[in-house]
Write a structure and sequence with these properties.
The chain is mainly alpha-helical. The chain has one domain (14-95). The protein has two helices and two strands, in the order βααβ. The termini are far apart. Keywords: Membrane, NAD, NADP, Plastoquinone, Quinone, Translocase. Belongs to the NDH complex subunit M family. This is NAD(P)H-quinone oxidoreductase subunit M, chloroplastic.
């Protein structure tokens, strides 16, 4: 399974830092290492893909990454953004995910 690669967020749906990218790539490598020797079937690839998707969703919910509101298309694949408002009823951009 050492021939798998990961193309992370090709549509720029999220705002990434070097640290969060590294976390996802490291987790991907852990999964590839875990399944080493397993047949490279569609089922195995789906397992890895699902685990990566759940990990990215966790990063989003933990506030480590955010939706890129300037992306070409806003599809919110991990659920609608949670947005906080300040006391005046105005949007707080720094808390948007």
């Amino acid at each position: 399974m050492d021939k798998l690669t990961l193309l992370l967020d090709p549509t720029n749906e999220f705002v990434w830092t070097d640290e969060t990218c590294h976390k996802v790539y490291s987790y991907f490598q852990e999964l590839v290492d875990h399944y080493e020797g397993a047949p490279l079937t569609e089922y195995t690839l789906r397992l890895i893909g699902s685990d990566i998707e759940h990990y990215i969703r966790k990063l989003l919910y933990d506030g480590e990454i955010k939706y890129n509101m300037n992306a070409k298309v806003l599809n919110f694949s991990m659920g609608k953004p949670r947005i906080l408002f300040n006391n005046d009823g105005h949007l707080q951009d720094d808390n948007k995910i």
